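Submission sheet (multi-component)
Chains listed below:
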Amino acid sequence: MNFSLFANMVIGGIYYVLAAVMVFLAAFGIYVLIKYGEKRGLSLVVALVFSFFFLTILAQSHSTLQNIV
Amino acid sequence: MHKLFPSQLEDEKIYIVVRQHWVVLLKKLFIWFMFAAALVLFRRYGGVWLPGLFEGSIGAVTKLFLQVYTIFLTLSLFLIWLFYYLNVQIITDRRIVDIDQVGLFHHEVSELHIENIEDVTSEVSGVLGTVFNYGDVYVQTAASIERFEFSDVPNPGSINKLILDLYEKIPPEQRTNAHHN
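Outcome: structure written.
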């Protein structure tokens, strides 16, 4: 792409910081849900469905980032 | 046996497990929906308002921004449901248990034994609360200054009555509070 090295670093840096924070919150949310959830089956199903969508979009965004930088 | 709260006894009878009314969840989902609608509108009309936004290098950055925003939306939807699901009040034949997931890193379990109850108040307020019959239940104890609060629960009057009925089942000599006898 047509960005300078500095711009690429800024875009990549912001992306990785945001992604790291959101992955941490998602992982901890799943942990809390499974630990404290009243119905184990429901908690697991919700955790799996959420993880699927979350990781799919995360993978897409990472692919987009690699096309940019 | 899967315990609903850590100190649950084998022979303890659960009368009710209550969460916030679904209207309260719906209000939060409505705010989430506004943010989701902003994404859809931006995708649909962003290129019209700002020509070139979805083209070339800038277009790739815009696409990345929208994908990160979508991740944020997915995460926030999960967290809205998580807090709704993990904030629960349980009434058993022995106690009232208030389980609060205050934040992602703060889990709180408060218990109140039925015999320590001094006063129970239910409150329905607002248009939605009146129409859908949800509101707050406050349980005051003899021992503690802080009162138990059930926020935005469905049928607060029924919960109030249930707590008082359970209190009435306690033999008078076991009750902490004398003036209810």
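Remark: Strands of chain B lie at 14-18, 88-92, 95-103, 106-113, 117-123, 134-141, 148-154.
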